[in-house]
Design a protein that fits this description.
Elements: H1 2-21, E1 31-44, E2 49-59, E3 66-78, E4 81-98, E5 102-123, E6 126-147, E7 152-165, E8 169-182
Antiparallel strand pairs: 1-2, 1-8, 2-3, 3-4, 4-5, 5-6, 6-7, 7-8
Length: about 180
């Protein structure tokens, strides 16, 4: 009886490890470039806007997972405000699943940079313009789907909270999606 249980346990362990070891090595694609879009939603004192992002990054370990450094640019517009953000982002890609053609990663990250905002106000009584810049702090969390031997990535960033700090503090929640090409 114990021998049958041992053989069964060993067989199950073998079967479970086969899918996780096939393609389990991270591909040697340390650079990525891409972009996306979504919505920047008002949390405190900042209008809801449409947002576009562009990113280029590098993984320190020379693979598709582990720590990364990225340069992130973002433009948002709507409600009479145009915003431009530039920030380096640091984070960690954590492999949850890795198969032959598909993989899944989670990636917490933080960014510290600048934000420039230009406001145009038009009323029946006249108009006005103003510009301002501030410190931009962002915490984010991505869910990444890797495709084609980790060469393409579809990312969803459901959590990205910006804090804009100058004489006052404003905040917004970004919900974004996009693609990266890894090379």
């Amino acid at each position: 009886m114990h021998r049958n249980v041992s053989i069964l346990t060993l067989g199950l362990a073998f079967l479970v490890t086969i899918p996780s070891t096939v393609g389990a090595q991270s591909a040697e694609r340390s650079f990525h470039i891409g972009g996306g879009g979504g919505a920047a939603l008002e949390l405190d004192r900042y209008p809801t806007q449409a947002m576009l992002i562009q990113e280029i990054g590098w993984h320190f370990l020379g693979t598709t997972d582990g720590p990364f450094l990225e340069v992130s640019l973002a433009e948002s517009f709507g409600n009479d405000v145009f915003t431009f953000q530039a920030a380096p982002r640091v984070g960690w890609d954590i492999a949850v699943f890795r198969g032959i053609e598909v993989g899944l990663m989670l990636a917490p990250s933080i960014a510290v940079g600048i934000v420039y905002a230009h406001v145009t106000v038009n009323t029946p009584f006249g108009g006005g313009r103003a510009s301002d810049s501030a410190l931009d702090l962002q915490g984010a969390f991505d869910v990444k789907l890797l495709l084609f031997d980790e060469q393409f990535e579809i990312f969803f960033r459901p959590i990205a909270v910006d804090l804009f700090i100058d004489a006052n503090v404003a905040a917004r929640w970004n919900a974004l999606a996009g693609v990266h090409y890894r090379f």
